[in-house]
C-alpha cells in the first residue's frame, strides 16, 4: 500500500503530553526525535515533537497511526525492548489521548 493510500485510511491521531522533572525538558526533547511521514514503523504516519513555550519542561508529541491498536503494539514493543527507560528518568507524568478521524 502506498503512502497516499495509507494516508486516506488513517484514522487515529495521538497526543502524548510529557511533563518533565524540573529542568529536564531539554533532555527529553533531545531524546525524542520527530519521525517523518515516510518511515519504517509499521502503520505510523509520522510524529512531530513540540516544546511548550511557557513551560520548557513540557513536551507534546503528535503522532499519526492507522489505528489505536497499531500504536499500542508499537508502545508495547518499545517497553519490552527497554527503550523507554531513559525517558522515564526525566519525566513526572505522561498522558496519552487518542483522537479518531471523522470521515
Largest sheet composition: 4 strands, antiparallel
By oligomeric state, this entry counts as single chain
Distance between the termini: 20 Å
**Radius of gyration, Cα only, in angstroms?**
14 Å
Number of domains: 1
Biggest sheet strand line-up: 2-3-1-4
What is the fold named in CATH at topology level? Answer: Alpha-Beta Plaits
Let me know the number of strands. 4
Percent strand equals 25-35%
**Mind telling me the CATH class?**
Alpha Beta
The whole-number mean of residue pLDDT values reads 89
Which outline best applies? globular
CATH architecture: 2-Layer Sandwich
Q: What structural class is derived from the secondary structure elements? A: alpha+beta
Element pattern in H and E: HEHEEHHE
Helix residue percentage: 25-40%
H/I helix tally: 4
Unreliable residue stretches: 3-7
Topology:
Elements: H1 3-9, E1 12-20, H2 25-31, E2 44-51, E3 58-65, H3 68-81, H4 85-88, E4 91-100
Structure description:
The protein has 103 residues and is of the alpha+beta class. It is globular. The model is unreliable at 3-7 (pLDDT under 50). The longest helix is centred in the last third of the chain and has 14 residues, at 68-81. It has a single domain (3-100), classed as Alpha-Beta Plaits (2-Layer Sandwich), CATH 3.30.70. It has helices at 3-9, 25-31, 68-81, 85-88; strands at residues 12-20, 44-51, 58-65, 91-100. The protein contains four helices and four strands; from the N terminus they run αβαββααβ.
